[in-house]
Amino acid sequence: MREFFLRHRKSLTTVLGIALPLFLLYVHGRSPRKTTIIEKALIGVTAPVQGAAARVLSGISDLWNGYIALVDVAEENTALRAERQRLEADSARLATALAENDRLRAELEFKRKRRDIRTVSAHIIGKDLSPYGRILRVALDAGAQSDIAEGMPVVNGLGLVGRVVRVSGEYAEVMLAVDARSVVNVRVLDKGVTGTVTGTSSPYNYVARMSYLHRAEPLEVGDLLVTSGHDKVFPPGLYVGTIRSLEERQREVEYELQVTPSVNLAGLEEVQIVIGVVDEPAMGSPSGLRLEADAIVPGAPGTTPAPTPPAGAPGPGARPPGAQPSPASPPTPQRRGGP
Amino acid sequence: MRGLALVLTTFLLMALLSPLLHDADIARYVPDIALVACLYIGLTTSLEKAIALALVIGLLEDGFTTGQTVGLGMEIAVLSVLASHRLSRRLVLRGPVGAMFLAFSTSLATSLVELVLSLVFVRNFTEGASGPLVVLQSMLPQALVTAPFGAIVFWLFDRLDALTSRKNESVFM
Known about the structure:
Radius of gyration of chain A: 41 Å
Distance between the termini of chain B: 23 Å
Largest sheet of chain A: 6 strands, antiparallel, barrel
Oligomer: heterodimer
CATH topology of chain B: Arp2/3 complex 21 kDa subunit ARPC3
CATH topology of the domain at 114-295 in chain A: Thrombin, subunit H
Number of strands of chain A: 12
CATH superfamily of the domain at 114-295 in chain A: Rod shape-determining protein MreC, domain 1
CATH class of chain B: Mainly Alpha
């Protein structure tokens, strides 16, 4: 027997070598079946080794990529920094453009709604600031050449900004509605209360005060104030501000309330200068507003002569605005309120 | 001693290769290290030892190859050893090109053997009709990937043999 095995050793080994895998293949090729002990043993042997190998290689790879293969990192870093700066600049430009777009849309909407007034658009080219950063007055890039005259109201999409106080060539200066010398006749929207809004020239914030004699209806914080047009300077129906506080105080026969301007004076960029009015109804003006198109007449005392309407503009009903003194607004402001 | 060294080296190579290729993002086709090792063993070892080593290496390959039926790698390993052992009597293999050519041609052949064995023994091989197609589609790329490793593994095992035995002959140089 032993001799047989020795004599046929190669043949027997070959047969066994071929038959054993075929047997295992037959056993494991059946379906369905459970995991065999051989498979479990194989997994037990190979899985830990393969896991360890994967961890070692991963560590080597991390070491290489994170600490050694950094040849291009500095260059890439510089490029990425430049790219980031460029993107930040683009982002800032985009934000500026979006803000400008919003402002111009508001201006356009204002012009669409207030077809009864003729305006000239202008950019803010200069701002006088108080030591506390508050804007005292602004300069515009439109002047006499654009038919701008002293006393003309200045507005934007949000409401009243102020009035032109000086005109020189292609430039004009605007006194803000919160200036202590500014007096605007107003009425409380939807309530039968009229009065005047006077600036405070506060060095800290943009606040005005409303003076009135009689309160027909109770007022509330947030009540809208619009120009009444009684002063013959400002067209009626322009937003002036909102009531900020109901803590009224009595000054002689008048009562006073604090008013927050409707316009964000700190963020002014573009404005409209009202150069005339036409006999055309306003669209979408504040509810309850009655437009008094004939209330503004040129050449009133204390104002500049009426500007000549440009060729091709408004029809026979067009009138440039002027400052007609009214009982509530003296023609020449007497108070000198510095910031 | 030599056989153990060869098996352990093959085992380590198989364990390292898969994660290495995965890290290098070329893990679609993995070179058949076990096949190359069996070819070397068949060329340089006596038949009985070669078959025994092939059974172990084939079993390990079955363990490393996820989803492969146990016995398939063993059978292919044994057949590779038998083929290369028979070849060693008729052909003198020298140099890396010869090793690469041998690895390439036997890889193609073993793919066909794998296909036949799978069709015969593995019951669910044709389920979904994707098994045979996968084997046929990967046959050539697998052989191309395995070929360079033929030269590398032959050189490595030659060095190993030089360390573990006083062998002067080399199938590689």
